[in-house]
Amino acid sequence: MLYSSASKYAVRALAYMTSRDDQKIFTVEELATGASVPKPYLSKILKQLVAGKILKSNKGPGGGYQFAKPAAEISLYDIKITIDGITEFVECALGLDSCNDHAPCPAHFIWKDLRAAATKSLQITTLPLANKIMVEKAVHAGSSKKTTFRKVTT
Fold first, then answer.
1. N or C: more exposed end of the chain, with fewer CB within 10 A?
2. InterPro entries, alphabetically (predicted)?
């Protein structure tokens, strides 16, 4: 149950928005630059986030994207489901059609426990918490991969 590239980019863009509490509306260009995400791909992702009611889109001059609800009410689970769907949370780990507690596949019970733990973890991790963890990881001396946000001036 890994995040797709689209989900990873969505989390990065939304975490960037969360980190900029001085700003409410963001253009695609600002988000792409600030979160280091390819702009054409991000445009499609933002449309999905609007359809999933995580973001609102404001058209016209001064328009852009803003949160549809407080960032503290948006979890990593909400983002994952909006971008990738619920497939990993309901399908058999081995892809069998009739896998359940009464007719389990060899991986059923292990996957069931892992899926429940992953689901709970994603549901309790809100955007502000995810942003805090990402920032801490970026400044951690032992971190081999840095996640940084660029400040975009308008």
1. C
2. Tscrpt_reg_Rrf2, WH-like_DNA-bd_sf, WH_DNA-bd_sf
